[in-house]
Amino acid sequence: MFHALVTLIRKELIALVSTRMGRIMLVTPVLLQLALFPFAATLEVKNSTLAIYNQDGGAASIELAQRLAAAKAFPVIINLYSEKDLREVIDRQRALLVVRIPSDFSRKLARGEVGILQALIDGRRSNSAQIAYGYAAQVVQAYSAERLGQTLPASLVVQNLYNPNLEYQWFVLPSLVAIITTVGCLMITAISVAREREEGTFDQLLVSPLTPAYIMAGKAIPGILVAIVQGSLIILAAVLLYRVPLSGSLLVLYGSMMCYGFALSGCGLFISSFCSSQQQAFLGSFGFMTPAVILSGYMAPVENMPLILRGISAIDPLTHFIIVVKGIFLKGYGLEQAWPHLWPLLAIGIVNMSLAYVLFKKRSGQ
Amino acid sequence: MTMLDVEIGNIKLRRLLALCRKESAQIVRDPSSILIAFVLPVILLLIFGFGINLDANTVRIGLVVEDTGAEARRFAQVLEGSRYFDVVHDSSRQHARTLLAAGEIRGMVVIASDFSAKVRQGKGAAAIQVLTDGAEPNTANFLGSYMEGAWQTWLGQRSIDAGQTPPPLAELSARYWFNPSTVSRNFLLPGSISVIMTIIGALLTSLVIAREWERGTMESLLATPVSRMELLLSKILPYYVLGIFAMALCVVMATLIIGVPYRGSLLALFVVGSLFLGSSLGLGLFLSTTMRNQLMAAQAALTAAFLPATMLSGYVFEISSMPWPVQLASYFIPARYFVSALQTLFQAGDIWPILAINAAFLLASSIFWLGLTVLKFGRRLDD
Fold first, then answer.
1. Which of B102, B167, B294 sits opposite A148 (nearest CB)?
2. Looking at this predicted complex, what is its ipTM?
3. For the whole model, what pTM was predicted?
């Protein structure tokens, strides 16, 4: 029986890599995403344009405008000279943020009052505009602290653990290990069963001496293998090309990858157990994958979600795997810290596999 | 001679209609395509609308106060009173560090035992230590600026309590245009409509021609007098109608149920929506024609249409923050123009200069992909 299983797995792998197109499709998407994602998928605000409308001509306003213009966060500065320009710059999205210095600003400061500057934020891009606003506010705060000229009673020391310079790529690459392997593993398991159904070869498998459990293993293991190969590619690139520190144990990382592959191929088999065509399997796995990625905490923090979605996120295998991979890369996770997220993966895998097994058995009429 | 016998070039209306009917029957008969066109958009919009929240929100932090002095207590009170923090008290730094590593808290504040004493000395040696979870850079960034704010409040309260008037300061006040309540939903949802339309336009169609080849029905079709254009149009029109329906559903759902304001005209939406669908349908059909294998065409559509639509379209991730080669690449992504048009239509209204530029690019990309498909779509078995 074991020999039959190995043969089945070999057959699956041959089907994947036998054609040139098939080989290309296994590797190209991974490489393409590796090249694009770390640069594209960033909430960091860089190269943003600041527009300054100085209605005041006083010394204080010029000093402040110069300081804003010199800030590293704003390499491009547009100077505005009228209300009409200001409106147009925001309407046409030419600037992320406009700072308006009102005409009484310098006079108020000179009189010892609080001078108020106005920041006009493009609400269409609220996250980046708020971060840009934060940068501008820092410049203004530094300016007023200097004007105060007295020693402050205490200082605030902010230190970022695990990722001292808040490099976005350190966040993206470990998450990519999880996301890219999801696509490969899920699609291969779900679609390979559906293709056999569509082509009628599934019935031949069912009348072979293989039991449904072996057939399922034969479909799940190639998916897990592909996930591990693709995952290794990304880990290599993360460490060698993007210089993301890998502080935890590689052994735990591969162990977790297998747990995740198990959970995912369970989902894939479950989806395929009630699909009769490749289109259905593809759309089914897609309908699973998109919410899984959105709710995983990769695009926005899970803690900001409403309770129901947080609940769904807790049974999303991707959520757990992203935490583990990020933990192993950045926080030096060992088995002890990873375990709270590994057992949910195993549980998800077991539940899905069992459901798929029941459905397969029903179909095969045993 | 009836309307149906009209012939334009080598397109016969009667044959085209029959083919369209066949294609529509295939769509309606398969529950998965109905699911993807009408159920998935609703689910996705709900998840996009409520699941992705990038707004300033409450951050859970650990607070370790080792000092019992008044200065330390005052700072702790400022943190507890702030709506930005959910404060968890902790007695040991060690334990708070474990919570931080496990992701239970996103930052920790340590006030050392000599804090109040150092503040009283007045040499500026006192320090409040803040540690953030750098594994979540966006949250860490926000946490840093909230802390800055709490610290300013603390300084202000101290000087008021000491009977000093606050010294002259410059202050930056924020005013929002277009989305005054800064609900990130209002700018994310219009953008996410483009992702949903990509799913219908490119992913669904990536399968349709490859399926005919795989199942061998393409050969039967080729044996009939059906012309190349008729066959292609029969693949385009039903999916176009499906896409427009799905877009209407998305817009109704976003505005009426989720409550995102819409300020543009429906005509403008219809025009840019149609142009965008044209280019995604073209891309999907092109991949389907070239690959002739459903699995590969689907994977190619995911890589060539879906991922760029989520990553490079600027609906979550700011394009101007990307390095220039990636920015350059984004100009070739139709979703970029559609997202920009959608965000403008929803939040700002019909701002013609923006809409016209976007529509022009979408038109060009539709012509490009559909044209390429026509060229590639051979009627022969051996190519």
1. B167
2. 0.81
3. 0.83
